Amino acid sequence: MKEHERSLEGRVGLLTGAGRRVGAVVARGLHQKGMDLLIHYNSSEEPARELRDELCRLRDGSAEIVGAELLDENAPEVIVGALESFGGRLDLLVNNASTFFPTKIGETSREQWRSLLGVNLEAPYFLSQRVAPMLRETSGAIVNIADIY
User: Fold this and answer.
1) Up-side HSE of residue 134: CA atoms within 13 Å toward CB?
2) What stretch of H or E contains 77?
3) What is the pTM of this model?
């Protein structure tokens, strides 16, 4: 096996916004390489459940889900609580959750601005900060991505 094709068996990844689209594709790819996954969702509970069930049919107990509104300041604690219940290990955080909607100069409300910055910048920062000690223990990594469909 080539170095870049090595197994991720025994490692745990946390993916935000992974119920659909890019997040679900990344989850399937990491799972195929052997990684166990905690799949975060906000409003996509059913797709997240379906993805968890799909992955667990392939490898029993290898995926779990956690729901949290990333704009909530308690979201990092909710997510870390789920990680602890899932085994307490973390090797990879993929900050994938994002929000995008049209915002015209001169028409953007403060609420829209706060939502965009909150989900796309603030939430990944504070979640990364919260899980950094767990990642240090495993020499883990953080990957930040965004998707617009």
Assistant:
1) 23
2) helix 75-85
3) 0.91
